[in-house]
Design goal:
With 119 residues, this protein is mainly beta. Helices cover 0% and strands 51% of the residues. The strands form 2 sheets. Strands 2, 4, 5, 6, 9, 10 and 11 form a 7-stranded mixed beta sheet that branches. It has a 4-stranded antiparallel beta sheet with strand order 1-3-8-7, with no helix packed on it. The protein is globular and about 40 Å long.
């Protein structure tokens, strides 16, 4: 059974850095593509960053490219999202997601962690 549990969110100021984590169980990174999404109040869910199966490719959304970094720690079965130079518009609930297929919709989602950036 796949489980994804996010942690590390919080309240920070603009320009600060924050790292959120996604602890996984039932996931082998060689078989699953992993991603981070976010959703702000009143807005649609937005793709933030993703890693292909077995690390085959790393992708970022346009609004975070150059500021955020996604990584996967095989030893700890954890996916991280390092967020630098945070802006108030980065405020959202951040969700971890996983899928078995190399393309298409994500099958598994975590409960989310709130990130709030004050100006």
């Amino acid at each position: 059974q796949v489980q994804l549990v996010e942690s590390g969110g919080g309240l920070v100021q603009a320009g600060d850095s924050l790292r959120v984590s996604c602890a996984t169980s039932g996931v082998t990174f060689g078989n699953y593509a992993m991603a981070w999404f976010r959703q702000a109040p009143g807005k649609e869910r937005e793709f933030v960053a993703g890693i292909g199966r077995g690390g085959a490719g790393i992708f970022y959304g346009n609004s975070v490219r150059g500021r955020f970094t996604i990584s996967a720690d095989n030893a700890n079965n954890t996916v991280y999202l390092q967020m630098n130079a945070l802006k108030p518009e980065d405020t959202a609930v951040y969700y971890c997601a996983a899928r078995l297929s190399s393309v298409g919709k994500y099958d598994y989602w975590g409960q989310g962690t709130q990130v709030t950036v004050s100006s």
